[in-house]
């Protein structure tokens, strides 16, 4: 079975500071990895994903995540955060198997709070 | 194009009642998945539908059921509601089977409160 652990439930940070949200996963088979963001009273939006290829993936709004197979991690980073980045962030995995790919397994979420 | 539409956005029900939630996927998307989000359990997979057939199911009791129509719209039903069913129910649509066929797009959710 697969599981996802987000190591920090809350991360407070000042505006323009760097931030890292940590995610570790457990799986006996290869997985696809995702980061989703959820703003208050909203659904989930895909931030970035790793399916294969380059282990460093980037989003259009400055976030990046690096897949580390040996450490089974997929940490999310941003060099300089904005107030508007305040939200809850979820790490998720899915299996690259046709009959399981529709199921996302989520971590418990990390609340990022950016203070002025 | 329009995103994933979930109706209603908010719902208050009494214990023992049943409820039906609706999800209209993005046009052209054929796969619909449902998730339950609670503060204690986080986001948990309920089930996935594709071509009107349930393809995958999470660990929820039989009170939770769903279906998908020929136009890919999906409904989720919860019977004999319990207080613990209070949650945000999220629907996600994607082009086809598995996330290889494109990312999953989520609706804004239906907030169900059971009193």
User: Helical stretch count of chain A?
Assistant: 0
List the uncertain runs of chain A: none
Structural class of chain A: mainly beta
Radius of gyration of CA atoms of chain B, rounded to a whole number: 13 Å
| Average pLDDT taken over every residue of chain B | 93
Question: What's the β-strand tally of chain A?
Answer: 12
What is the overall silhouette of chain A?
globular
Oligomer state of the chains in this structure: heterodimer
Largest sheet of chain B: 7 strands, mixed
C-alpha Rg of chain A, in Å? 14 Å
Helices and strands of chain A, in order, run as: EEEEEEEEEEEE
Largest sheet of chain A: 6 strands, mixed
Strand content of chain B: over 45%
Q: State the end-to-end distance of chain B.
A: 37 Å
Alpha plus pi helix count of chain B:
0
Overview of the structural elements:
The complex is a heterodimer of chains A (116) and B (115). Chain A has 116 residues and is mostly beta strands. Helices cover 0% and strands 52% of the residues of chain A. Chain A contains no helices and twelve strands. Chain A has strands at residues 3-6, 10-14, 19-21, 23-26, 32-38, 44-50, 56-58, 64-68, 73-78, 87-94, 105-106, 110-115. In chain A, a hairpin with a 5-residue loop joins strand 7 and strand 8 (64-68). Chain B is mainly β and 115 residues long. In chain B, strands 2, 4, 5, 6, 9, 10 and 11 form a seven-stranded mixed beta sheet that branches. In chain B, strands 1-3-8-7 form a four-stranded antiparallel beta sheet, with no helix packed on it. The N and C termini of chain B lie far apart (37 Å). Classes of the chains: A mainly beta (116), B mainly beta (115). Chains A and B meet through strand 6, strand 10 and strand 11 of A and strand 4, strand 5, strand 9 and strand 10 of B.
